Structures are given as C-alpha cells and as structure tokens.
C-alpha cells in the first residue's frame, strides 16, 4: 500500500526555517487550486485564503505571533479564514434571510472547510519539495489580525500557513500510539497507560536527540505544562462581534 | 509541478456509492497513521478517531444522518472527534488545573487538529484507490451520536468519513474562481461578479450533465436556497454541556 502520496503524508515535519526563495505566482495558484479541491460541506466553500506578500504586513503578523521569525521569513504566507461573509452577501442579493449563518453549526462547517483546504495546501506544498508550518498564534491578538487583513463580519481568521523552501531538516515528531487515539465503535475513556509510558519515553528521546540533551520532556509532561498557559479569552467575544457561533 | 500527490488532490470527488468490500485491518491502520501524521497545534493531538464496524451502530448513524445509505454501506466508517478529554485526564493526573480546556481557543485548536487528520486520511484513502465522503449530518442529532459512541465530556463529534471502493464515477464538481476565494494581503469584500457569473453557468452545466437535464441550479442559487434550511441549534448547548467553548 506504499505510494508517493502515503510517503508524502508520513514524511511530514513542520519547517521553521526557510531559504530566501519566494514562491512563484504559478506555485501559489497551484497551491490554492489544491486547497480548493478539498471537500466542502454542502458545496458552500465557506472559507477564504489571504496570501500575504506585503513585507510590512508580514512583519506585523510576526509580532502578533509572539515574534516567530518564520512568520516573516518564508517563501509565502497564507491566512486561512472561516468565511460566511460571501454566503451572506449572496443570500442578501436574493433577498433571503441570512440569519442561519450566525449559528454554531455554520461556524463549525466553515472551520472544517477552511482546515480541509489548508491541509490540502500543506500536503501539496510538501509534495513540491516545500516545507510548511501552521501558525495558530496569529490569534494571539485576533482583533489586530482581523483589522490588518480588513476582515469583514462573518469571518474568522483561523491560522497562518508559512510555506517555503526548507533550510533545516528536523526529525519527525513521534505520534501517539494507535490505541490512545483510535477507538473501535465506542470511545475508550480509559487511557492505555503502558503504551502511553512507552510513548513518553520515545518523545523524551526525541527531544534529547534534537536538543543534544538539553531537553528531555515527555509528551504527558508537555501536555500538563501547556495547561498552565494563561487562557486566551478574546476569541469568544470576537466571534460574537463577527456574528458567528451566536446560537 | 505535476506529481502524483497533486494529481490525487486535484482528482478528488466525493463518492456516495461503495462496493461491499470492507477495508482490511492493515488499510485502517495505515489510514489512521496517515491521519496522525498531520500537523497538530502545540503537539497536543487534540482529536480522536472512532472506527465504526458494528452493523447496528452504522445503521443508527445512517438514520441520524437523514438516512443516507452510504453511511451504512461502505468499506469503513470513521467519526472524527475534537478531543480535549485525553488532555484533561493527563492534566488531572499531574494535579494541574485543567480549566483552560473549556475555552473557545482550545475548542478551535481541537477542531483544527481533527480536520487536518481527517483530510490526511481522505487523501491517503484516495491515493489507495478508495473513495471518501464526509458526513457532517451525524450532527443532526448530536446528543444521540454522542450517546451511541459513548463520548465523554470535553469531546465533540465533528463529522463521519465514509471510505470504501467506489461503485460510481461522478464528475469533478467545479470550484469557485480563484478571485472569489483568494485575496492578496487584505480581504476583498467586493465579489468578482463577472467571474461569479461564469462560475454559476459552469455549475448549472455540471448539474445539467449529471442529472440528464433534470437539474440546472447555479452555485449562488444553491447557496441562497441553503440559507432557508432550518437552523440546527443543538450544537451550542451540546458544547456547553461538554465543557467546550464556554468562554
């Protein structure tokens, strides 16, 4: 069952250092076409992609993201937006009541459409010898991100995708044992502790090798530590303001 | 820039009729591995996959979905779940305050992780000669879906993915013109009407050819008509009950 697609998928690692080479217009167009080819709920295509090449804008997004250099230094940067604004405009032209677009169900659909599209772009990029890194931290100041990109209501910026020619070769990060993420017919609320312990050791080894022994965090330690980061509470009021997920 | 991955991505069409052949355990394991290889926010892997092969359960899900036969008749059926329950359990064991998991930010992250994984599985499946169809309508009775799958709190079932050997060869559904979905640096609130009109004609032609002339809906008509479906309002209280997206 081995094939070039499976190999591309299994070979994924996030790239956080890119060469100076920019993506060509043709590459960008192909990436967007691949993104669009993904499934979309009820054919609504409830997402938009914003390609950022303005240096000042990239710098601003870098600052918002907590100063991650690869937000600015990459071959291309794309922001994926859950988008019900287009659908709203189309409905209004036909004189249709568009209130349904403010539901949590429609927000969920738009999030899915945007994420399917983004993952297709990521896979396409990697097949072309490019590397990618998702940037969720454009939401660290979501109001400012939305203002910079001039996002109208009924839209929600989800994450950025930095794309470019890799200037590093990181190791693959080990994933959870199958038993701890895959369930058969019903959810197994009990964790498989033996598998999880082995996994913890595998992750500690990964960090040890990657940092030359400076870091040896297990996966469960990382999860537990992540719970102590201050909650980012601006998203709910932002969505409310954008008329999304109101009911 | 053509390669087998790009070809697989651009060749996507949803399959709604499968042969009787079931996926093998090896195929399922590979599909899950490919799903897991996708990016995950802060390495949290905030999703679970539930593989459904119990016939009674598949039948129930078929009924919930509005009696779509391919929910029951397929090679394999997978439900993708946004999952903060695992992280919560891990946090509790370390005596960490896990309240951050009830934020909209953490819910968004889990939705993204689950959707990236699902799209990887979809692409992997198509590369193996299988077809796929997302089933968002398992949310039509989300309480019952969650009860059937015994989902604990901090989890949210997003969609099913029906996978199997295609027993039909549908045409590719045309996607929005680039200009109406791709923006440069800032969001273009103005629709490109000329491109949209050509697209509407293209979609009407697609339906005409697919239905032998019985249907000729344009894309904007379909969007407008979709706005009149009754809103599905159970998602917000369900999420609240699951301790997700509360703030």
What does this protein structure show overall?
Chains A, B: GO terms for molecular function: oxidoreductase activity. Chains A, B: Belongs to the flavin oxidoreductase frp family. Chains A, B: Pfam families: Nitroreductase. Chains A, B: This is FMN reductase (NADPH). Chains A, B: It comes from Sporolactobacillus terrae. Two copies of one chain form a homodimer. Chain A is an alpha+beta fold and 247 residues long. Chain A folds into two domains: 4-170 and 231-241, NADH Oxidase, CATH 3.40.109; 178-216. Helix content of chain A is 43%, strand content 13%. Chain A contains ten helices and five strands. The first copy, chain A, has helices at 4-10, 25-36, 55-64, 69-72, 85-93, 104-127, 142-148, 193-210, 219-226, 235-241, and strands spanning 47-52, 76-83, 131-135, 155-164, 182-184. In chain A, strands 1-2-4-3 form a four-stranded antiparallel β-sheet, with helices on both faces. In chain A, helix 2 packs across helix 6 (104-127). Chain A is globular. The termini of chain A are far apart. The mean pLDDT of chain A is 97. At the A-B interface, helix 1, helix 2, strand 1, helix 5 and helix 6 of A face helix 1, helix 2, strand 1, helix 5 and helix 6 of B. Strand 5 of chain A pairs parallel with strand 1 (47-52) of chain B.
């Amino acid at each position: 069952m081995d094939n070039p697609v499976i190999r591309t998928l299994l070979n994924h690692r996030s790239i956080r250092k890119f060469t100076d080479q920019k993506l060509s217009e043709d590459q960008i167009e192909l990436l967007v076409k691949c993104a669009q080819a993904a499934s979309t709920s009820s054919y609504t295509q409830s997402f938009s992609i914003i390609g950022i090449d303005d240096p000042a804008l990239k710098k601003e997004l870098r600052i918002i993201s907590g100063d991650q250099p690869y937000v600015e230094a990459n071959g291309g940067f794309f922001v994926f937006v859950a988008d019900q604004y287009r659908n709203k405009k189309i409905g209004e032209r036909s004189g249709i009541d568009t209130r349904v677009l403010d539901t949590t169900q429609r927000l969920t659909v738009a999030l899915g459409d945007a994420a399917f599209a983004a993952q297709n772009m990521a896979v396409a990029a990697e097949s072309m010898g490019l590397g990618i890194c998702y940037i969720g931290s454009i939401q660290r100041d979501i109001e400012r991100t939305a203002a910079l990109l001039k996002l109208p209501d009924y839209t929600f910026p989800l994450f950025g995708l930095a794309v470019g020619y890799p200037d590093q070769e990181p190791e693959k990060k080990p994933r959870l044992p199958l038993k701890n993420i895959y369930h058969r017919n019903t959810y197994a609320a009990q964790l498989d502790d033996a598998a999880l312990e082995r996994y913890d050791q595998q992750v500690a080894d990964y960090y040890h090798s990657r940092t030359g022994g400076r870091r040896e965090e297990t996966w469960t330690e990382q999860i537990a530590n992540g719970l102590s980061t201050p909650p980012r509470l601006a998203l709910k009021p932002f969505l409310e303001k954008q008329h999304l997920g109101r009911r």
